[in-house]
Design goal:
3-stranded antiparallel beta sheet, alpha+beta, 8 helices, 185 residues, two-stranded antiparallel ribbon
Length: 185
């Protein structure tokens, strides 16, 4: 029996559908959420932007590099056993979840009002208010200004540690969309 990658239900005959570019193996109840993909066309087509095997929706760590990386497909598939594929976002610093509190406490520690801080950074006071309320994320430019002026760090301590905080999932150890998404019926 195979698990539906959308709701997590056990199914003996999964159907492959395409949902916003991702191909998923789903049960009969979830086929309405995408367009059905025929098996013969998915294995014979190769696109410029292939992401590995056709059924890897990014939810399981078993994707293989089946010819999408050119001449080095042998080394890529042997080294990607349980590791996730790296992309441009892995190298980016992530903003800490409590960035708003860090900015507010540092500003108050320096004895500045929101408008004083905005004047020092050559930004609008409304932007500082929105950042401190958590209503908006600071741009990279504003983040670096805040970090430099207030002498604080707004980036998350470890982006790889966030993956280990995840506690959902099925008993088989693989995750499905059903573990993460709440359906609106």
């Amino acid at each position: 029996m195979v698990q539906c990658e959308m709701c997590g239900a056990e199914t003996s005959s999964p159907k492959t559908i395409k949902v916003e570019g991702a191909q998923l193996d789903v049960c009969a109840n979830c086929t309405d959420f995408g367009t059905e993909v025929t098996q013969s066309s998915s294995s014979s087509t190769s696109t410029k932007y292939s992401t590995g095997s056709g059924s890897s929706g990014g939810s399981s760590g078993t994707s293989t590099a089946s010819g999408s990386s050119g001449g080095s497909s042998g080394t890529a598939s042997s080294s990607s056993g349980s590791q996730h594929r790296s992309d441009m976002f892995d190298d980016m610093d992530q903003l800490a979840t409590d960035y708003d509190e860090r900015v507010r406490t540092a500003r108050e520690k320096n004895g500045l009002s929101q408008s004083d801080l905005a004047n020092e950074l050559n930004e609008k006071a409304s932007l500082i208010r929105k950042i401190e309320r958590g209503d908006t994320l600071p741009s990279d430019r504003v983040q670096s200004k805040l970090e430099r002026f207030l002498e604080i760090d707004l980036s998350a301590e470890g982006s790889s540690g966030e993956d280990s905080e995840w506690s959902g999932g099925s008993s088989s150890g693989s995750y499905t969309l059903g573990d993460v998404v709440k359906r609106k019926d």
